[in-house]
Design a protein that fits this description.
heterodimer; A: about 160 residues; mainly alpha; B: about 280 residues; globular; DUF2243 domain-containing protein (chain A); DUF2243_membrane (chain A); transmembrane helix (chain A); membrane (chain A); transmembrane (chain A)
Chain lengths: ~160, ~280
């Protein structure tokens, strides 16, 4: 392998890795947006703020909200950057998207709802099935993303 | 329970101040503040027109639009129906603040007034202006950490302390606060995105970190306003104000984020092209 082709291979690896993290950010931000639009605005299951939150919870919620907003924009530009550096295969990008979406959903269900008690999935109902469904949906998305990632690796090595 | 004792005393003092003041004088000051805005509009549009007629490079029309719109928005928060409503209702007041402290500064920064000034001024004044821009005080004020602390910190002072009540009851405070948020908002926006030249621009990671913290602080404060109504404000009114601050802030922050990342993306592209030319000799 001469120097130029080594350089091309490294560049493709960098592009792929960036493509993964770009779509990871986009997946997490899209999941956050779905949460905001469907559950806060349309169904009105969640409360904007139910006044039972701890101060730490409120601050961490603020930081998370800022990171979501940044992730959405950063994801698009990072993906554009990855694509101008080299080709990124579709499987890697979908893998990043679902891993990001699943990670956010699990984080939201466990840390935001249960640990910090920012707000609950729904009010005046038995919460457990809602909490289980919330986190299970996250696990499904995460596993799907990881499987797609493995397939992407497999297709490259053959 | 210190708040409960302080507040009646505060509002007592404030209402006395109000009774002694004449309504006419207050309106006069708000209108008086339109004068510098009008001067700024005339100076900018005049310089832009001159630049277009005999400048070497044409001055883009959208910068004129941005500058005019920014000034018009500031004017609308000082006089007119929105300014009147802002005295009565905290949600309307919050709309005025979002416009004056976030949207107007974004438009004014996008208009690149410093670049226009440097191009249209004579060599002597232009040199003085660039020396002023590089001076220590401005270097400190336009540092992202300082600018963000001023912009977000003063909001916390306004809405988490009895100052919120003073803003509505004491004449002139509303106008002074508007002037303050326009300037603080301008410095913050200019410290995050480079439209105008800045001799000591902070790096991208630092600017991104400041941006994340500023957005976080803004959303936490919005929820604070929602949950703990500022003194003298009804809960329902404070809830509406909190929502306006939260979602309205998001909208402007999204635009600021796009501008910031677009700048980072472009400069990374320039470095990428230079790196390619070095790594792969020959065309390609």
């Amino acid at each position: 392998m001469n120097e130029t082709s080594t350089l091309r291979v490294t560049r493709r690896t960098i592009a792929r890795r960036r493509g993964f993290w770009a779509t990871f950010l986009m997946g997490a931000a899209v999941m956050a947006a779905v949460d905001e639009i469907v559950f806060h605005q349309l169904l009105r299951w969640h409360h904007f703020y139910d006044r039972s939150t701890t101060d730490v919870g409120l601050v961490s919620d603020g930081v998370l909200h800022a990171v979501e907003l940044v992730a959405l924009v950063a994801g698009f530009f990072l993906l554009a950057d990855a694509l101008r550096r080299g080709a990124v295969d579709a499987l890697t990008m979908w893998s990043g998207f679902f891993v990001g979406a699943g990670t956010f959903q699990i984080w939201d269900g466990l840390v935001d709802h249960k640990l910090l008690r920012v707000h609950q999935v729904r009010y005046d109902v038995v919460l457990l099935p809602y909490d289980v469904a919330w986190v299970a949906a996250g696990v499904v998305l995460l596993v799907l993303g990881l499987l797609l990632g493995r397939r992407a690796d497999g297709e490259r090595s053959t | 329970m210190t708040d409960a004792t302080v507040v009646p005393v505060m509002s007592g003092v404030l209402s006395v101040t109000r009774e002694h003041d004449h309504g006419g004088a207050v309106i006069g000051v708000a209108w008086l503040l339109l004068l510098p805005l009008a001067l700024a509009a005339v100076a900018y549009l005049g310089a832009a027109a001159a630049e277009r007629s005999h400048g070497r490079r044409a001055w883009p029309w959208y910068r004129d639009v941005a500058w005019s719109a920014g000034l018009a928005i500031v004017a609308a928060t000082l006089v007119g129906p929105l300014a009147d409503a802002a005295h009565e209702d905290l949600a309307a007041h919050m709309v005025a603040h979002l416009l004056a402290g976030m949207l107007a500064p974004l438009l004014l920064v996008a208009a690149a007034p410093v670049t226009l000034a440097l191009r249209s001024l004579d060599v002597g004044p232009a040199r003085r202006l660039s020396r002023l821009l590089a001076s220590a005080p401005l270097r400190v004020l336009t540092h992202p950490v300082v600018a963000a602390t001023i912009a977000v910190g003063s909001l916390w002072l306004l809405y988490a302390t009895p100052l919120a009540a003073a803003m509505r009851d004491v004449p002139l405070v509303h106008e002074l606060v508007i002037v303050h948020v326009v300037i603080a908002g301008y410095l913050f926006t200019a410290s995050i995105v480079s439209v105008d030249p800045a001799p000591h621009r902070a790096g991208y990671p630092l600017r991104l970190g400041v941006l994340v913290l500023a957005i976080a602080a803004h959303s936490v404060l919005a929820k604070h306003v929602f949950a703990v109504a500022p003194t003298g404000t009804a809960i329902v009114e404070a809830e509406r104000a909190g929502l306006v601050m939260y979602y309205g802030g998001d909208a402007v922050e999204l635009v600021l984020l796009i501008a910031f990342f677009a700048e980072w993306y472009r400069s990374a592209g320039r470095r990428l092209r230079v790196g390619e030319r070095r790594a792969l000799p020959g065309p390609g």
